[in-house]
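User: Hi! Is it possible to get a structure for several chains at once, not just one? Here's what I have:
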Amino acid sequence: MAERHLTIVGAGLAGALLGILLRRRGWRVDLYEKRGDPRVQGYGGGRSINLALAERGRHALRQADADEAVMAHAIMMRGRMVHVGDAPPRLQRYGRDDSEVIWSVHRGDLNIVLLDLAEAAGARLHFDRGLDRVDFDARTARFLDPRDGDAHEVAFEALVGADGAGSALRAAMTRVTPLGEQVDFLDHGYKELEIPPTADGGFRIEPNALHIWPRGHYMCIALPNDERTFTVTLFLPHHADPGTGPAFDQLPDVAAARAFFEREFPSALALIPAFDRDWAANPVGQLATLTLDRWHLDRRAVLLGDAAHAMVPFHGQGMNCAFEDCVALAQHLDAHADLADAFAAFEAERKPNAAAIQHMALENYHEMRDRVDDADYLLQRELELALQTRHPARFVPHYAMVTFMRMPYREALERSEIQRMLLSQATDGIDTLDAVDWAGLDAAIHARLPPLEPESR
Ligand code: FAD
Ligand code: E0Q
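Assistant: Yes, the chains can be modeled jointly so their relative placement is included. Here is the combined structure:
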């Protein structure tokens, strides 16, 4: 094969990481990004300000020698700090100790670190270039400069779509062949607000946690930023529905929103001095699960990350999954001489795993907004830890399989479903672990949960 060259559409999180990985493997890489260079003009945000980075994402960053630079900006989150009523918030640890934690990273900082590394590795970056149209027969793509509307025609060998949930490449591929696209909008949206630093420049609340204010049908969360602020996100139904209470469409103005917070989130509101400004300035974001039957068009184009499988954010895995995609695609590109084979193998490996984390992310919304404070939920978490100690080779808590390990998401889901059934049977009608039928549970675990592969322990 002559030159190995890929044109990546979108230099966001996945596109920039993939650029590094491919350059390290000797590919020629061009990255086209609709926005301006965030290193020059600041990061124009739009999407959530900060993100939870977990082991899957860190592993991918290590493959690109990017982990250290990213971690310089990261803040450890040991667990969920749950705020209910007037009681002081309580920390629910995510793992067994500080080796099992997640990290809050700023989207803009992360993107900039990856862009710098991609450029240093020899990728060519083209900013202010939004993909507009593709001629897959002539293998040319047209990019528009959003500043002046000028068109730029570019020849390509193959296109990689890392252009996010609203992917323009996906739309262009659909014009050639149906991809079987399905978009399931969540009937809840989100709005971001900010907790600033204290007067003396410190964090206003515990920095090393993901804060959560669960309220049944809706919730707020807050993640720390290294400039000592927190980004608060309210998740709330778009439309009022009998029985579900408040909704964005019932908060027509800032005064109504403030009254809602005074009633439902007084402890959070007290931390958000510019509530009125933030509420007015920040739009309500949409959340959706996107699935496709096909992620690639023979040897000419492939999609990854949100462009292929956008998910709701409630497991904090969208970016982590997108980063896993990048490593998998780079590996398949190495293993197959023909791009069509590489794209097909990549899709076959990743599609079931993306579907699994999409499913788990939807399930986690209900858990987060409604269950984290229930006695039976807490008892089951306690039992999970006890069972992990009793059966370390077979039983790993659901959260740990998704967040601290790298076993395929599909396998984590299959094991979680079995475990959940065992946990609910074992805790049915009891309220302390003293009443657990350990012998029966041990036998069921041996029968239903095969030992984990040594490499995923
Ligand atoms: P994006 O990050 O969206 O990047 C796409 C890039 O393509 C952008 O730079 C965009 O400007 C560019 N682009 C778009 N159109 C074009 C075009 N036509 N031409 C050229 N370029 C284009 N994930 C986590 O792992 N942890 C979390 O805690 C987490 N929290 C989240 C909270 C919220 C509220 C939301 C909405 C998402 C969250 N996610 C989280 C998910 C995460 O944001 C995404 O999964 C991740 O950004 C996907 O990366 P990507 O590179 O595929 O897409
Ligand atoms: C994490 C870390 C947006 C968001 C991001 C997250 C998480 C949650 C709730 C949300 C899941 C959890 N979680 O705490 O179980 O672990 O990233 Cl809403």
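Residues 186-284 form one domain. The CA atoms of residues 52 and 414 lie 24 Å apart.

User: Great, thank you!
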